[in-house]
Amino acid sequence: MEQMTLQIVTPDGIRYDHHAAFILVKTTEGELGIYPGHIDLIAVLEIGEIKVRRVDDENHVDWIAVNGGVIEICKDRITIISNSAERDRDIDVSRAERAKLRAEREVEEACNTHNADMERRARIALQRAINRIHVGKH
């Protein structure tokens, strides 16, 4: 079976390192599905989930929440660099739901006070919390 090696690196070190048969990521240009033999490429990632179909079991899928980053594809070696990456099994959904509520309040407060910078930061925090909740519920 053809395979790729996927490594996800954060400032805390390597967060994921496995062989994959298929990878799905969300780039700034749209979704990108990657199979072995994909052309070499570098792309910017959105805040979103990464779907990894592992080679050890075709029914085994890993879901990983990332807060944006960069993906490099080079000869069946995929490297993702992101500020943070969490596997579905490691996400505390109740904590993420509390972060979502906090971010929603901050967005509302920023809108009421017309603080565009605070609103932008709060919307990013909200997007991250929603992503973590979504991935954590897989």
Automatic annotation (TrEMBL):
Cross-referenced HAMAP family, in alphabetical order?
ATP_synth_epsil_bac
**Gene encoding the protein:** atpC
Q: Which domain of life is it from?
A: Bacteria
Job of this protein:
Produces ATP from ADP in the presence of a proton gradient across the membrane.
Q: Does the keyword Signal apply?
A: no
Its placement in the membrane is given as: Peripheral membrane protein
Key words of the record = ATP synthesis, Cell membrane, CF(1), Hydrogen ion transport, Hydrolase, Ion transport, Membrane, Transport
Q: How does it assemble?
A: F-type ATPases have 2 components, CF(1) - the catalytic core - and CF(0) - the membrane proton channel. CF(1) has five subunits: alpha(3), beta(3), gamma(1), delta(1), epsilon(1). CF(0) has three main subunits: a, b and c.
Protein name, please? Answer: ATP synthase epsilon chain
Residue ranges occupied by any ATP synthase F1 complex delta/epsilon subunit N-terminal domain in the UniProt entry:
4-85
Q: What SUPFAM superfamilies does the record point to?
A: Epsilon subunit of F1F0-ATP synthase N-terminal domain (SSF51344)
Q: Which GO terms describe its molecular function?
A: ATP binding; hydrolase activity; proton-transporting ATP synthase activity, rotational mechanism
Gene source species: Streptococcus minor
Residue span(s) of domain ATP synthase epsilon subunit C-terminal: 90-135
GO annotation, cellular component aspect: endomembrane system; plasma membrane; proton-transporting ATP synthase complex
Tell me where in or outside the cell this protein is found.
Cell membrane; Endomembrane system
Name the protein family.
Belongs to the ATPase epsilon chain family.
